[in-house]
Amino acid sequence: MRNLKKSAQSLIEYGLILALVAVVAITVLKKFGNTMTNVGTQTNSTVNTASEQAAKNACEGTTNTAGTTSTGKKWTATTYDGDGLILKAGSCT
Q1: Does position 2 have pLDDT exceeding 90, yes or no?
Q2: Which of 30, 48, 78, 79 is the one with CA 20 to 30 A from 85?
Q3: Tens digit of pLDDT for each residue in 77-92?
Q4: What CA dihedral angle connects 13, 19, 25 and 26, to 10 degrees?
């Protein structure tokens, strides 16, 4: 009988610990959720901009004073929707 009581007590204690962890996790997500979303959005924007610029530089090479690119090619920018998803990939022609 003692083992059964001890087992039940342990089970209740684990349940309370689990509930506490869940409450803390929900509180942290509510408090910092928007901040984490903003950081992700800013990081996505920075990576997209850098990637687009690198692709443009690789395509066009250098531009002389007359505005002509050293490769003779032109980069068409990637277009994105409001959520940052690619609608049309950039191209080098």
Answers
A1: no
A2: 30
A3: 888 777 777 778 788 8
A4: -170
C-alpha angle 21/27/32, rounded to 5°? 125
The residue among 76 and 67 whose pLDDT is bigger is 76
3-state secondary structure the chain: CHHHHHHHHHHHHHHHHHHHHHHHHHHHHHHHHHHHHHHHHHHHHHHHHHHHHHHHHHHHCCECCCCCECCCCCEECCEECCCCCEEECCEEC
User: Which of 12, 84, 8 has its CA nearest to residue 52?
Assistant: 84
Share of the chain above pLDDT 90, in %: 20
> For residues 84 and 41, is the Cβ–Cβ distance under 8 A?
yes
